[in-house]
Specification:
Rossmann fold; 3-stranded parallel sheet
Length: about 300
């Protein structure tokens, strides 16, 4: 759900941002200066009733209900990333990447069109440009919104293939002043503040109210897990956070988290990632891989 913003100057949409907790934990130079008001309500929390787990209270926070066109929870990160983009008047091109039907990529394309920016999206797939099946679902919507789509191999490596290709495209389009690179899933030192902020404003009030002890999330690019884990740590470690990988390995996500911590000059927390104190990352249920289903899952 969006606020009615379309008639306002873009700069008027940027709201100064300050951490909702004591800012001493994170160097002020890393705290986003602005937030773009795309979300106008807290998401509901519903109790899950399972006959097989009557002794356990399980609640679901319905971030999928935030929005339809921009894919729900993606807005949490993009409120901060697009605020950074709109604060740069010369920035016209937005470059990001993801799987062929990535909801993150679709969300970036929706917002780029809304705020008169040109989206460039690298999509991982084994299909080629001549395949008519490409323009379906999210790629079709992104194309209709004016995004430029670039097909890259499905097994393209983030560090060795995707990030260099994004940098190359940035140079072709005029350099850093005119381009803004959003990593896969929006999981960088700006994007993580989406769920950092959500934890403090929306989850902490529920801990005592619902007698919560654990928080369980899926992890695909890392930013949601990292924002939640840091906010939990800086507010007293009251919850045990569990992240279930839908792609990649535990080691990959630990490395990503430690990289984010180093970029935030929080290397002192690296050991808490390595010994699973900040978050318990489970990679035992990845299955065939991201976006791939077994026959049993399809039948179910």
């Amino acid at each position: 759900m969006y606020r009615q913003l379309s008639t306002l100057p873009l700069t008027s949409l940027l709201k100064p941002y300050s951490l909702p907790i004591d800012g001493k934990h994170i160097n002020s130079k890393f705290i986003p200066k602005y937030r773009l008001s795309l979300i106008d309500r807290e998401t509901p929390v519903e109790k899950l009733c399972l006959s097989s787990l009557r002794s356990v209270n399980i609640y679901i926070k319905r971030d999928d209900q935030l929005d339809t066109y921009s894919s729900g929870n993606k807005l949490r990160k993009l409120e901060f990333l697009f605020a950074d983009i709109l604060s740069r008047p010369e920035c016209h091109h937005i470059i990001t990447a993801g799987s062929l039907h990535s909801n993150h990529c679709k969300a970036v394309c929706v917002l780029a069109a809304r705020f008169q920016r040109q989206a460039h999206v690298l999509l991982r797939t084994d299909r080629d440009n001549e395949d008519e099946q490409i323009l379906q679902g999210n790629p079709l919507l992104s194309y209709l919104l004016g995004a430029k789509l670039y097909l890259i191999p499905k097994k393209a490596n983030i560090q060795h293939d995707i990030e260099p290709r994004m940098k190359q495209l940035e140079e072709e389009l005029g350099g850093k002043d005119k381009c803004y690179l959003i990593p896969i899933g929006g999981s960088d030192t700006i994007g993580i503040f989406g769920y950092f902020d959500c934890f403090i404003r929306e989850i902490i009030p529920l801990i005592d109210k619902l007698n919560l002890g654990h928080l369980v999330v899926p992890v695909s690019s890392g930013g949601t897990m990292e924002g939640l884990a840091l906010a939990n740590y800086f507010t007293g470690n009251r919850l045990r956070i569990h992240a279930f990988a839908v792609s990649d390995s535990q080691n990959y996500f630990k490395t990503h988290f430690n990289t984010i911590l180093s970029q935030l000059e929080l290397e002192n927390l690296n050991k808490l990632v390595d010994d699973d104190s900040l978050v318990d990352i489970c990679d035992s249920y990845v299955g065939l891989g991201y976006g791939r289903m077994t026959n049993e899952q399809i039948d179910f």
